[in-house]
Amino acid sequence: MMNKAGGYILFMFILSVTLVLPVCAVDADKVIIERPVMEYKSGRFRDPFKTYLIKEEPKPVEEQIPEVVKPEFESNKLTIQGIIWGVERPQAIINNRVCTIGDTVEGAQILSIDKKGVTLNFYGEIVNLYSPGQGPTGKEAKKQGGSR
Fold first, then answer.
1. Is 0.85 topped by the overall pTM?
2. Which of 97, 99, 120, 123 is least crowded, fewest Cβ atoms below 10 Å from its Cβ?
């Protein structure tokens, strides 16, 4: 004998099989769904799918990029009076001003400070200023014309 819960479960199973089988038995190749082609007719309203932004033509590259005149670096304007190196925060005294790495002096940014001198970045050009008593040797002296 079957109890009520078992009979209910069997009834639901048979019901679901009878409802699902006819849907699954339909041949998918024979069913073609035709969808109508929709065309937007706005009448007096504007088309929400059309852009109304004004398109500007790009300017030629010559007009977009202004010509940058790179100033000439004058090393005679900078004088190193002293250098503190080999510490956590090296410093240099340039033109009677205490400077550290990252400071800007006469338009040039200080990149490093060591016992030989100070390395500067002047508009992308790397410039070495030598500490008192140090100086360019060999090839470096020829590049800089023998000046400090």
1. no
2. 97
